[in-house]
Structures are given as C-alpha cells and as structure tokens.
Amino acid sequence: MSPVHFVPMRAVNEEFGGIDVSDRRSFGEVRKGYTAFQAGDVLFAKITPCMENGKLALVPNLHDGVGFGSTEFHVIRACPGVTPRWLAHFLSQAEFRKFARRHMTGTAGQLRVARPWLAATTLPVAPPTEQTRIVDKLEELLSDLDAGVAELKAAQKKLAQYRQSLLKAAVEGRLTEAWRAQHGEPEESGAQLLARILRERRARWEAKQRAKFASQGKVPPKGWQATYSELRSVEASGLPELPAGWAWASIEQVASDDAYSLAIGPFGSNLKVPDYRDSGVPLVFVRNIRSGRYGGAFTKYVSEEKALELRAHSVKAGDVLVTKMGEPPGDADVYPMDQPLAVITADCIKVSCSPAMMNARFLAWTINSEIGRQQIRPMTQGVAQKKVSLGRFSQLAVPLAPTAEQSEIVEVTSMALQDADERQRAVDRALRQSAAQRKNILQAAFSGRLVPQDPNDEPASVLLERIRSERAASERARAGARRARRPRAVA
Asked: What is the pTM of this model?
C-alpha cells in the first residue's frame, strides 16, 4: 500500500499556527500504535506542555483521505451541523487551555487532558449559517492580527540578532577601533595585564603560605615555592584574531582569588524547599540570571544561619553569575550593585572578578557572545538535561583588553543595549496587546457579539435536537446490528 500522511507532534505549530502533513510513512508502519484521523478533524494535543502551548490543528484535505499521528493527540470530529472551524477556534482559546490545564491528570511532566473530561466539556453552538458567518469574520480579523504579530516576532528576532552582533563587535574589539586609533598605545597591554594578574596571584599565594608557616611556628622548607600550581594558558586556535594590545586568557586566570571567596564556583548550594524562608538572605535561581531580575515578590530566602553555613555559595554585587543548566546552558549576568549579599542555588556558577583587571560586564558579555557560545556548546554534557562542567568552564577562553578600553566598551555597549531593551519592551507591549485583542475577538465570536444575528436562521435548539435524534438512531442501529450477530440457541 502507498505511504499515508503522518503527523508527529512537532508538525503541529503552537497557538493554532498550522499543520504540516507532508511527512509520509507506510500504512503497515503506522496502522497500529498511532492515532488515525481524517480531513476536517481537529487534532488537540493532550500532553503538557504541548496542550498549554496551543498545539492544535484543523486537518486539511488529505491525498489518501486518512492520516496517522502521535498518540498524544485527541482527535475531535464535529457533528453534522457543527462547522469544524467553529470547533477548532473554540478549542484554540487561551482561556479554554487554562481551564483544561486545571483538569489534567497524571504525574508531573506526564500530565494529560483526559478523554472523558474533554468529551463532557460543553461549548456554545450557534445556528449553522451563523457559525459560518462568525467564523468567516473571525478568520478575517485574526488574519490581520496574525500578520501584525508576525511582524512583531520578526522584529524580536532582528533585535536578538542585533544584540548578538553588538556583543560580538564589542568583545572582538571592532566596536572600539576608532577609539584605539585616537588613544594610541595603551599604558598596559592585555598581555602585560595578564602577566601582572598572574604575578600578583602568585605573590598572594606566597604571602598566604608564609603566614601559614608563621602561625605554625615553622620555617618555610626549601623549595616550597615550587609547589605553586601555575594556571594553564588557553588554547586560542579556532578563535577570532584579537586587536593589537589584546590577549587571550582563561576565566580561571582573570577571576579573583582573595582569601575570603572562591574565584569560580563551586556550583550553587543544593537547597531543599524546607530550607526556604519568607525573609532573610535572598536566593538566586537560574530564572533570575536569565531574566536579569532579582528581588521582588517572588524571591525565596534562607535564614542568616543557613547563609553562613553556605558562605562558599554566597554572591555579592558585581559577581558574574552563569547558568550551568538549561537549553542552552551558559547564560551570564552580573549581580546588580543595588542587591544585598545572596546565595546561589544548585544550577548556577559564580565568577568573582577584580574590577581593576577584568570588568564584570565585559566578562558576562563575552560568555553570552558567540565567542563564549561556541566554546560552551561542546562543554555541555548530560542526556536528560545539558549542563556545563565547572572544570571545563574554568578553561573557557576570554579576550583580555586593556582596562581603559574595557571601560570604553562597557560604556558604549551599555548605551546601545539600553536602546535595544527599550525597543524590545515596546515589542513586548505590542505582543501583549495583540494577545488581549485575540482574546477579545474570540470571546465576542463565541458570545454572539461578532456579527449581527439573522432571525431567519434555524435556531440552534433545532440543530441540537436533530443531533441528539441522529445520535440516538445511530446507537439503536448499532445495538440492533450487535444483536443480529449473536448466535441463536438451538433447541
């Protein structure tokens, strides 16, 4: 038998955004273990998060008349007199999906909309001719709205691309080409700065060791300085060429190493929900790093005593915070100057920097730029969830510019990003307004306020009575057929 249409979950777009029926598989492969449907059926994702995201589609005409798809679809077929488009648009409403979410059953991550609940759900039904008028007007309005939303999402994408281009130009030195030409040779090049960082790091280590020997009343043994572990130089092959006066360094090399806090890591504290408090020392989660928002009504806390116990995981203003997990991992942000001492949770990495050597904002942008991304991608490991190895992250190569140029880059880039953020906020506002407008249009459609009613239309009550009568007749016919198939007893 020739191949038939096959629709996996990925072929249905979110927010009732269309369906791709181009995939074909052999009938023998899909006739068992998959969900069958036909043209005019509504496919409604039953599983979380697909249902909440609006994975819903009206099946178009099919070459073979029938198709198969994921078992995670409910197949809903409209009765005669009910327009499939009417049914699909009703189910597409965000409010309906919220309602369905409250009635899902199953375990976390495997929640599903149960078939009995969906079958028992009621929906408004207009006279058939009015359904057609409403849906025609609804699709006209939604088409215009969708065109506007598509433009807004295109603007979102361009802004994201602009940010990446800006960060790339910033951390590769192209943004300050004119500034370098104007200011000439730096007093201390990136290579000289790195050499000074390493010298000072060793000097701090030696001073700490001498203090340790002195506290123990011991004379430093011969050759004790040889026990110092030099930090490895980075391998810059495959990375972009840097401007004259810049140098490559590892995150491990540019991080602070004072006696009171670890420069990199450890990973955040593995806290449990019972440790959370309504006040105290705030916690920093992955979501804070990704959004750049800290504090506020949804902040969790730990007690002062617990925070003291977890002081190795504390973060202060100016620390660089990085997500070790997620899709993708490796998002970076700087803990704001107006925030109090906090504790990071298990999925975060912190990096402390000396402002006189590496600007924290410059380091965070490097991690977020393509320079950081192309190194972090092969660093990730894990099957269920990708995560960054702390040891490998410490070796991530970052460009080290002269400190004055770092400051200039941060000032210029910050202004450009502020402008991009303002444009992003305007796009986000417009998208929220579009979502509200969609909600209002759908509510008007299914409350009879979208188009004028026609008194000549057949009342919906007549349609519903006809549906009930036809369904009862069909049930009687099936029952009669079952009785006819039963073998009769022989006397």
From this structure: 0.78
